[in-house]
Amino acid sequence: MGDGGEDYGTWLQGRLSHAGMTKDALAERLGLTNALVSAWLSGRSEPTEAMRRAVTDLISGTGTTGGAGATSSPPALPLQQWYHRRAHPDGGREYGNAAAFAFDADMAVLTREATQNSLDERLDPTAPVRVEYTLHELTGMHLRQFLDALHWDALLPHFEQAAAAPQKVSRSLRAALDELTADDSLLLLRVDDHNATGLTGPEYGDGRFAAVVRRLLDSHKASGGRAGGSYGLGKATLWATSRFGLVMVNSTLSEPHEGRTQRRVIGRLDLPWHEVDGIAYAGPAWFGEPDTKTGDGVVSRSWWADENTVRALHMERAGADPGTSFLIVGAHDASGDATDLRDIHDKLVRSLADGFWAAMVGGHKGGPLLRATVRTLRNGRVVVPEETVDPSARHPALCRALRSYLDGETVEELTSEEQVAAVDVPLFVSPRRGEARSRVKGREHKAVLLLTPATEADDRHSRVVCMRGNRMTITEYRPRELPPGSTPFQAVLLAGYATERVGDDVALAEAFLRASEPPEHDRWDRTEELTSLYERGALSRLKEFRTEIDKAVRGLVQRDTGPRTEGPAGLRELLRLDHDVPVQRRSVPFPTVDRLRARVESGAWHVVVTVKLPEAEEPWVLSPVAKFAVRSGGKPVVEWASLTAAEGCRIENGRLVVDGGVRRAEFRGVTAPASHPVRGTLARLIVDVHKVQGGAA
Predict the structure, then answer these.
(1) What's the pLDDT tens digit per position in 505-526?
(2) Closest CA to 678 of 626, 625, 638
């Protein structure tokens, strides 16, 4: 078969036409009979794999001539070009890629989604996926050379017209173009993975290549049900992180395509609807080799680039291991947390360690699933040397807990600070709709809870980190009703394939939990997929699972852990809490700000706010309010540029949502300098939380 699902003869005819070569010329240069080439074209026979490679090399102009009558190389293929999709004939318009708005253009979100996609495409299960993040700032001559290789001048008319519309994407694009001109600087971010499948498959038919480069909401996974993603939205974060909506791709394939595996290159641009010279364009565009065989005129397809081309595009890959490199052109961190190269570098390292610490942990029986590095360059020179992400540096207790489990060294009850306790937690998987209900609650799956004392290096503690599949963190929260005086701890909840167990219940639990995750994959909750695929009561099974997790945590932390090494014995005796004596707890009647950490950066206040909440069964919905305590007058309210959840909460429509039973939550905020009545340094900042609804109110 040829490309796009057509037979080899159809593919060959299109390539010959594209190269301006006749079948007789091909036969002559290969030293074959005209009848044999005619048989290929008619579909009566197909060449061997070796002959396919020879044909591809010859047509592309990279192979040597062969045969007694060979005289010269065929004409070279046309140069690469940008193909812009024409507007819909019915007048429909899209002012941007809606999939890109499913996530924030934040480096932490990018690392989560892009790295999870790499894990999902792990090729050799006995070796880790290697992910490399490279920041590269280009200025001056280096910038101009890169833009020339990208055919930037051909894009400028489309950029200018797309940036003129009164739409959100257009305004952001206008600012990016202005800054590129004013600063003469462009930031590239390349994400490389190795030991991954690569973008295999045909140009236009079903496969990984088309799912990533040509389609929306196509999740083409091949990880045996272990995939973290399921919506096909994660790839949109690559384009969302580009200020120009532009990403270049270079893939080394695990399976040959057109007889080749190395340097399959293409670019994709996502613009809003626009007009250039009276012609309306839908927005998407592709950079590649002209292709006339689609029947819709000349479009751009991927091409097999030479080493000089990928070097000019800053997309050269180290080694020949299968995998893909994504080059984000005009990368930025929309959260405002990272403003310079060092900040972005450090945020990438932190985000990888926070989201994938568990995938980076290995045991005696098997190594880690993932290794990650980050490096930073400016005009080809090293600014920050390559840094290997060390998960133990940020999460020592969590790494200890998982490593002990993988090595089979857990205990049933803690008696020292270095031990890890393990206990099974039941999850009942609801039957799918239409299945025979052999059990009232469904099939039981035994998840695993690991718990160990926290360390002094842990910024946050007494929380449960939940995961499934390839051990990416899904959610974390503080358990309800912890005993007073509980020893600070770290806990890990492993479900589905993350338990490293086998059985039908494991696969059922994996699918059940994946169906309960929203596109962000940051919690287990009600989703349309869950309620449509599973029998009534599925949401109750999730709530019961949460209750069982909390119960298991309390059962472990209530046990006497023996002597600890925290201070003199006499002082420990004086401060000892007796669980048998009732303890009077002061109730909090309404949510209050417990702690505020703040700094002024680039004119904006950056805050980390901890909120205490009273016991409640229903979720709290709060409105964070920032005010300036100026030297005279009232306290004017300032607007938030961004709000992000940190622990025990989530952000929905600008509101802070805290689930019932959670007594402590933390969020981050950045104020909008344009809304400041005075400069941020001339006022104190006050942050309050107003109740929108909560508890039984």
Answers:
(1) 999 999 999 999 987 778 899 9
(2) 638
